[in-house]
């Protein structure tokens, strides 16, 4: 046994450790891309048992602000929503990504699935202190045009009405979307 231990542990593996974990032991630092991937797929990174939602949000925003590769961020947000089946974390990433309309418009309809997602995204943007410019309103308008169904209009009426009012959709567009249901048209308009 002594011979095996001498050959297996010739060198301490923690000598090359470049970080310290929350308990104070040597650890290895992950690149930001891996941290964001983990965060978008699981909603957590580490040491989250005693963390508040505010601390988690601050960590996410710190990672997003320090991440410069927008195309990779778009892929991570999309994979977190579709493969990781997470909802709020990718929506926060999408709210941050909306500052880059070219990349955001490519994945917007796949990340924002329901009317509730849409209104949560708008609220997250407002919570971040960011407004809705023309490009963002165009993304929301195209989502309304392509994804809005009677089911969403009935299930999330206030959210849909707020989104329509924010994006200033014309009455003719709304009448087109709900051409069969006059009562729904009147409620939305």
Characterize the structure shown.
With 189 residues, the protein is an all-alpha fold. It has one domain. It is built from 12 helices and 2 strands, in the order αββααααααααααα. The chain has helices at residues 2-8, 32-42, 53-66, 70-82, 88-97, 101-111, 115-127, 134-147, 150-155, 157-167, 171-177, 182-188; strands at residues 19-20, 26-27. Strands 1-2 form a two-stranded antiparallel ribbon. Helix 4 (70-82) packs parallel to helix 6. The longest helix has 14 residues, at 53-66. The protein is elongated. It starts with a helix and ends with a helix.
Range of strand content: under 5%
Strand-pairing-aware structural class: mainly alpha
Termini separation: 80 Å
Question: Helix fraction?
Answer: 55-70%
Please provide the ordered H/E string of secondary-structure elements. HEEHHHHHHHHHHH
Number of structural units classed as domains: 1
Summary, kept brief:
The chain is mainly α and 189 residues long.
Helix and strand layout, with pairings?
Blueprint (H helix, E strand, L loop, with lengths): L1 H7 L10 E2 L5 E2 L4 H11 L10 H14 L3 H13 L5 H10 L3 H11 L3 H13 L6 H14 L2 H6 L1 H11 L3 H7 L4 H7 L1
Antiparallel strand pairs: 1-2
Primary descriptors:
189 residues; mainly alpha; two-stranded antiparallel ribbon; 12 helices; 66% helix
